[in-house]
Amino acid sequence: MFNRRDFLRSTAAGMSFVSLSGGMSGLLARAAEASAEADRNDHVLLVVELAGGNDGLNTLVPFENPLYYKNRPTLTLAKEDLVKLSDQAGLHPRMAPLGELFSDGKLAVVQGVGYPEPDRSHFRSQEIWHTASTDKRVPATGWLGRWLDATAPAYSEGLAGLTMTSTLPQALRAERVVAPVVSQLESLSGAGDDASPQARLLRRLSTVDGASEGPVPFIRQQVRAVYRAAARLKEAASKNETNAEYPDVALAHQLRQAAQIIAADLGVRVLCTSQDGYDTHAGQAGTHAELLSELANSLAAFQRDLAARDISDKVVVLVFSEFGRRVDENASQGTDHGAASILFVVGSPVCGGLIGEYPSLEQLGDGDLIFNTDFRSVYATLLADWLGAPAKVVLGSEFPRLALIQKPA
Amino acid sequence: MSDAFFAPLDPDAFNLRQAAHLLRRAGFAPTPAELSTAVEQGLEATVEDLFADNSEEQAAFQQTFDAVAGSLVNFADASQVQAWWVHRMLRSAFPLREKLTLFWHGHFATSVHKVEDAVLMHQQIETLRANAWGNFRDLVLAVARDPAMLVWLDGQSSTLEHPNENFARELMELFTCGIGNYTERDVLEAARAFTGWHRAGNQFVFVADEHDGERKQFLGRSGRFDGGDIVDLLMQHPATPPFIAAKLLRFFATAEPSTEAVAAAARLLDRTRLDIKWFLRELFLSRYFHSEVCHRRRLASPVELVVGSVRALGARMPALELVGHMAAMGQELLAPPNVKGWDGEQTWINSSTWPARLSFAQNLASIDSENPYGPHLPLESIVPLELNDPREVVDQLADAVMQGELGEGVRSDLAEFLVTTDEGRNDEAFRDDEGFRAEKTREALAMILSLPEYQAW
């Protein structure tokens, strides 16, 4: 028997998830029904986390602002090198592929995204983004996990949510639905027809019915589901090789595999990927340039791959980071943890453009950029307008939506 | 005075099966030698041994720790502190104390990811270890003063002007009496009582200027309570023994204890005035504990599985690697997912963690080095080299890791597997070729460690 657990107890701070026994599950069940009636779509959300705190100021540069040039003696990017998106803002020179996507109307940039009372700890800020909660009593579930619980049918069955990263992101932690770590599933031999005799024997011994008391029956049931999930994944891998060219970098490998899985039509709705290395405290210039170049090229390759597979209108990509970095450069030609930053939403279904305002470089919060768009507005928009989900249930309260997704014709 | 529910087991009824169960629960897993010693000396003596004094061992570990700290091993790195604890779990001659430390770590779940100081985490584990089976009150008080806890639940920033409720709330909700047994007002008042409980570096420090010494109302009582008084009052709360007893029962006895069992355990803990050692001793001696409702009725947590498997086989594996295996299975030591600890039981098995269990089994069974200073699996001690009857080999493996509790059907399937080559059945190969035999034996071992029945602990 799988016990019900609370998500989060209500607090004086106001954001509350109902915690009566069965209450949350009941709420989600009703939400699932509503969602089933409303908009049963197969849209896919792919999330790219830029881990470490991406320097938004040097990703999308407010090149007409004199204050930009004042605070960063060695890190300032030259205006003429930028990939201009408007007469005020341009992307880092190594992001030309994203510039092309912008011209095609497939890139939205949310300019000043963050949350109130920014926390500059990686752990805490990541936790806030992943759980979509600034509450001190951190929910046990992530925002994507809560969405999966509201919409996906069964525990550990199916592949509605997946991660291409090596461990499960907090965003995917759910009460019921298990989002496998793809690399773990892949390591499970015995799932396919080419399995060794050893693997096949183990599979048989693990899944035939036997004892009826204690934990063993539940384990067998789970193991059966695990083998099934692994087999489906294996099949997808063997069938959907791509011709698209990807750069030879870790993020691109994750995206390539993601495209293959999406194309295999396994019912996957959300995938998580990540790119490490953005915590550029020292010697930022070269490192950041390489990272952004990898990012831009990987995202562009992914879009090309989706187009070749004719599934461009099925996938939206969200690119975020746990915080931006300080306006002032530090003494090591780098930058320290900041607050507000930029965020990308990429794909054919997207309403391209610059969203919100570029934060002021003059009115700062403790030396950091102040946000003007709460990141949960982005989540709310993607949940409601793209995934057809009950945004308020998943996020706990209402957040104003943004014009990120094209309305259906 | 004694409660019929935990009436003692008849000493003559203590056999291999009971001994194995006891040593799995009150430790990690027994070697065949430990098992036969237990059977020989009987239940009472074995239980006594579990609670033996460990000060010599503690001093020896401390000496090793001090000798290598900062030079050979950088204990400022959390992964090294994780590895050190695994090392202790593997090597300790007092596994019950380590098991209890693990239990309390899950109970007072504090994560290095927020504390961000490996030394403080190490210190907290030492505090849990030192107070593992004493009086629960002393343990709670020690934890309330623990620097890592002060960082974790924001006691550090709790001041006269702004008492921080975080610790006060979790103290009641998760650490002592459980939700629904206090009011919001109680939380606020308790928060006031703990103001000024700060840390300076690695030490607890009471900052009088930040402490609210005024009158407070707590659980229907009134007084100028400080943190210690709050702890005392919570120890007297009638909901505390049931709350703690239930957790102890689920960890040591059975995953889903009956209401009757929980009530009896609460009565027992109450009678012992929250003395953990007394409670556990009576539990371990009881007929209930050794009955079928407890036998293999828990799902091994990653730590139990990993440490238990390595210990039972007498193997050596680098502790740091084992930390990684446990994390892949969903349990990263010193980093519980949140203040509620690990939900455990069924939540340990899913499409990410199950392959990780299989990976571990494979890795352990494949260790094939003779280097005396490296990883080692003493295959010849587990299955004598000359033993060339496949069924007997299977039986040896079953004795080694499952204390003999492996079903007949599986045994014969494995025996058949042992004599099967790529070309089909070949009894002679198994009988005459030592190399082939060793290889197949390892594969069979990996399989046993991967079975669902193996995870039933």
Summarize the SSE layout with pairings:
The complex is a heterodimer of chains A (409) and B (457).
Chain A (H helix, E strand, L loop, with lengths): L22 H16 L5 E8 L8 E3 L3 H5 L12 E2 L4 E3 L4 H8 L3 E8 L7 H10 L11 H9 L9 E3 L18 H5 L10 H11 L8 H24 L10 H14 L6 E7 L7 H25 L6 E7 L19 E6 L6 E3 L17 E2 H12 L4 H5 L14
Parallel strand pairs in A: 1-7, 1-8, 5-10, 5-11, 6-7
Antiparallel strand pairs in A: 2-4, 3-4, 5-9, 8-9
Helix pairs in contact in A: 3-10, 8-9, 9-10
Chain B lengths: L15 H10 L6 H19 L4 H14 L9 H14 L3 H13 L4 H4 L2 H13 L5 H9 L2 H6 L12 H11 L8 H10 L3 E4 L2 E4 L9 E3 L2 E3 L3 H10 L3 H13 L6 H13 L4 H10 L16 H12 L5 H10 L24 H14 L12 H4 L7 H13 L5 H11 L1 E2 L2 E2 L1 H6 L1 H16 L2 H4 L2
Antiparallel strand pairs in B: 1-2, 3-4, 5-6
What would you say this structure looks like, in words?
- The complex is a heterodimer of chains A (409) and B (457).
- Chain A has 409 residues and is an alpha/beta fold.
- Chain A has one domain: Alkaline Phosphatase, subunit A.
- Chain A contains twelve helices and eleven strands.
- In chain A, strands 1, 5, 6, 7, 8, 9, 10 and 11 form an eight-stranded mixed beta sheet that branches.
- In chain A, strand 3 and strand 4 form a beta hairpin.
- In chain A, helix 3 packs across helix 10, helix 8 packs across helix 9 and helix 9 runs parallel beside helix 10.
- Chain A is globular, with a radius of gyration of 22 Å.
- Chain B has 457 residues and is mostly helical.
- Among the domains of chain B are: 96 residues, no CATH class; 74 residues, no CATH class; 77 residues, no CATH class.
- In chain B, strands 1-2 form a two-stranded antiparallel sheet. In chain B, strands 3-4 form a two-stranded antiparallel ribbon.
- The model of chain B has no long low-confidence stretch (mean pLDDT 95).
